Amino acid sequence: MPGPMFTYDKEMTDLIFDFCRWRLTINPVPLDFGGIAEDLGEGLDALLNDEGTSAATVLDYYDKQLATAIVSVDSPRFLSFIPAAPTKASLLFDMVVSASSLQGTSWLEAAGAIVAENQVLSLLAERAGLDKTAGGCFVSGGSLGNLSALTTARDNGRRNHPELAGKRLRVAVSEEAHSSVAKALHVIDVDALIVPTIDHRLTLGELEKALAADPEPETVIAVVATGGTTNAGIIDDLEAIGSYCRSQGLWFHVDCAYGGGAMFSSTHGHLLSGLRHVDSFIVDPHKWLYAPFDCAALLYRDPRIAKATFTQNAAYLDVIHDETKEEWNPTDYAMHLTRRARGLAIWFSLCVYGIKAYVDAVDDSIAIAERAAVMIQEAEHLELIRDPSLSIVLFRRVGWSDEQYAAWSTKLLQDQIGFVTPTKWEGETIARFAFLHPETTEAMVAEILATMA
Ligand SMILES: *Cc1c(COP(=O)(O)O)cnc(C)c1O
Questions:
Q1: Quick one: CATH architecture of 96-353?
Q2: Average pLDDT, the chain
Q3: What is the assigned CATH class of domain 355-450?
Q4: What's the gap in Å between 216 CA and the centre of ligand 1?
């Protein structure tokens, strides 16, 4: 007889479903408090013991003690880092994925999940201007996507350049590249050729200059560009850099973890048109494509190259690689084996709402960034640092010290008015808004700006 762990429990099920129903209903979601809760963790010891604690007690503890100590990334007042705003349909379907124990590791086990995930990947590839042979998989985040793409680039470079055997390989990256790119290069033991930017943007001119000044430019096998920097939303010159890479046989990887959402913008989508040149790129649907955590898309122009890097040759896995069928094993395209079918939540949501709803939502985020910029320009105590890029706005409170920004940010969260952490820009501490929640209103922005007077 199975014990209670495996027996349907109506009471507990109702408890959890009611909780989820309530969490999906609250509007607006409260910000809550993150690391500033005082007696955090008190009472945890009593819950975990040999005999078990009732679900009602544990859930109540989670609700009152833990959930309130997690800042709600999906609050419309969360304007720090990169916020999140998963659609209702995506959240609901994520529950289906959990309740059904869906994994999406291999075609043999999970073809039904994988074809649906691949439908979304094809849509992203098409938006990027790649053709139908492009493909990849969903991974946990942009960091794992960058790592996987750059591992493939390294192996491809080694394969194509036997003359470089014994030499260290390098990848050209902008000084503004996301920290996960440096981390990935560290893991794969490849060096970076750091390329300076012009106004924080990587250009072909600077790349060519850096290569020309380098004593061993032939050891550079790939270039990483960014489609929307996290701090400022700046898009590198993808078109020029991409066509240069193609002509020189350099692997071209674009990190669009945040900015990739702009592929769906009717007004700003063209800024990413250079994606048609990529060998690989990533976009995080858990950022600006309204999917729940954790969901990043990794795409390759020619997925066979990634397969050469990531196919695992374990005897017990041979059965999943049946080359005679049109199979697709997500495990062959990134640094993972077992994986949650994490692409299904966005698949369901895209199908339910339609692509046009995504276009509108992305356009709205850019529009509110532009309106916030106008409000900042009109306020005497504030200065806009640059025109907003995508949905990010950088601005300064005239005369404030680092300490004043920090104290203001802490108080703003304490008062539950907003979560806006300061950032650095050209050595100066400044304020930054990142928009993507469709329910962030101008009134909320005005309320936040007024606290800086
Ligand atoms: C967020 C981000 C990453 C890292 O993605 P994770 O999903 O947090 O691992 C990489 N690059 C850029 C540009 C990002 O904005």
A1: 3-Layer(aba) Sandwich (3.40)
A2: 96
A3: alpha beta
A4: 30
